[in-house]
Amino acid sequence: MSASTPASASAGVAPQREQWTGQAGFILSAIGSAVGLGNIWRFPGVAYENGGGAFLIPYLIALITAGIPILFLDYAIGHRFRGSAPTAFRRLGGQRNGRWLEGLGWFQVTIAFVIGLYYTVVIAWSLSFFVFSFDLRWGDDAAGFLINDYLQLGDPGLSMQFVPGVLIPLVIVWIAAIVVLGAGIARGIQRANFIFLPLLVVAFLILVVRALFLPGAADGLNALFTPQWEALADPNVWIAAYSQIFFSLSIAFGIMITYSSYRKRRSNLTAPGLVVAFSNSSFEILAGIGVFATLGFFAFEQGIAVSELNDITGVLLSFVTFPAIVSEMPGGPLFGALFFGSLVVAGFTSLLSVLQVVSAAFQEKFNLSPRRSAATIGVVSGVLSVLLFSTTTGLIALDTIDHWVNNIGIVSSAILTVVFVLWMLRKGKELRFHLNSVSTFRVGRSWLFFVGLLAPVVLGYMLIQRIVVLVFEGYEGYPVSYLLAVGWGAVLLLVIGAVVMPLLKWKRPVDDFDVWPEYTEEVVR
Q: What transmembrane ranges does the database entry give (predicted)?
């Protein structure tokens, strides 16, 4: 029976699968997923610290040789096997290998589940600072306001001392996410992206244009884009480029597998994939221009060089450096509102895609409606999110879990996908055939080389390097016991999800599925 056959969900038969209304809906939603908080607060600092303008060379090479190939791999798996990550991997494995390969899908779902818990709280912070922008509530000490007044940061550990200023906006974000997810793919996620993505682009363009006319803006841009050609000889610069591409495209943890599964059978995959990839990179460069033009102004006001500034990436850039800049610039409240409003919108569209990975998997495994799945996942996730991240230890927990899940979990997921799907099951030719059967931009044999050999080699090096550093050097000076419990504990949770979830019985038919178009070795050219 085809997965698209209408039937009664209550009878234990798969209902008709939801779909995007068209190509534009899919592209906007995929861009909305890719363009997130990391584009704004991670790329500018990474580029500046790794060769400035010269960094764009390894960045573009990484995009072409790893980012786009793995993006196409996710598209091919999701679209051909018409399901969330566990469903798609189970069908890809077939009767013989489906059950254990399903575990890889649940590994990705668990990654998305954990990311959703802490990603939401960053959106809540951004929502708070959006409100704070109008009266510059952080005053003259942005760092003190963030750490002491707003987050009320404590020592590493598990605290039950809740911070109302974080808890209230966090609950609001979870309610909004549950409502959108419950509305389904077309009426919920797609409609939200049709509204929020253009709003994000317009707001950020206004912010960038304003930043370009600030005193010292040119110095900031020169600092960012002046090429440091000697950096290209440093392997760590290339690793940084691959890391940035990999983490910013929403690949290898179920998002693009899930999103592509909602496309119609006869849908172009590769051309929209190129649009998504280059749109994401274009926004990163735009973010770099806006952020460093603003940092140039900040350095000018203090009478120092841009190179002497601290806190130019991550949480401190957004919630310490930028508030301090807003306090010094003309029209600061409006500039602050635009910046933090952009963070809220970019974060929310990415959050929807992360949560949909989990919601779709539970819909298909346990025969739930989108509304019931969204409510169940949302309530459970919301409670855990509040308990872990709205307390005085929330920032430390977020920093630790994020580092382990991204650097160990997602990278491991990408490597395992290549090893299982392309090396062990030898599905590369079939997936290439599928891409070329439905797409206008055809992928050649070089795609198999990039996705099957180059990408896992680079990612394998990244993974080993990161594990060695975390084991022998720790992280941010946090106690070893804390890192074992929270950091490595998060990785253990991913493994438990991969092992336990495939053991549970499917409430919908999953194995009786017709793959289209039919593939044989003879049709491959």
A: 20-41, 53-73, 106-132, 162-183, 195-217, 237-262, 274-300, 337-362, 374-398, 404-425, 446-468, 480-504
- Quote the tokens at residue 217: 């803006």
- Among residues 507, 517, 512, which one has the least CA distance to residue 2? 512
Residue with tokens 């808890």: 167
Q: Please work out, in degrees rounded to the nearest 5, the angle formed at the alpha carbon of residue 254 by the alpha carbons of 425 and 483.
A: 105
Residue 82: count other Cβ atoms within 10 Å of its Cβ. 24
Residue 391, phi then psi, degrees to nearest 5: -105, 180
Task: Encode pLDDT of 250-307 as tens digits.
Answer: 999 999 999 999 999 999 999 999 999 999 999 999 999 999 999 999 999 999 999 9
Question: Tokens standing for 227?
Answer: 């090429």
Largest CA-CA distance found in the chain, in angstroms, rounded: 71
Q: Angle at CA 244, nearest 5°, toward 169 and 30?
A: 60
Q: Residue 162's beta-bridge partner residues? A: 391
Joined together, the tokens standing for residue 186 give: 């077309």
Could you tell me which of 414, 417, 402, 413 has the C-alpha nearest to residue 495? 413
Tell which residue, 52, 29, 27, 334, has the closest CA to residue 211: 334
Task: State how far the alpha carbon of 26 is from the alpha carbons of 39, 189, 503, in Å.
Answer: 20, 10, 32
> Reduced to 3 states, what is the DSSP secondary structure of residue 269?
coil
DSSP 443-511: --HHHHHIIIIIHHHHHHHHHHHHHHHHHHH-STT--HHHIIIIIHHHHHHHHHHHHHGGGSPPSS--S
Residue that has been written with the tokens 């008709």 in this structure: 16
Span 469-524, pLDDT tens digits: 999 999 999 999 999 999 999 999 999 999 999 999 999 999 988 899 998 765 55
Q: At what angle do helices 270-302 and 68-81 cross, to 10 degrees?
A: 140
Residues 79, 80, 84, 86, CA torsion sign? negative
pTM: 0.95
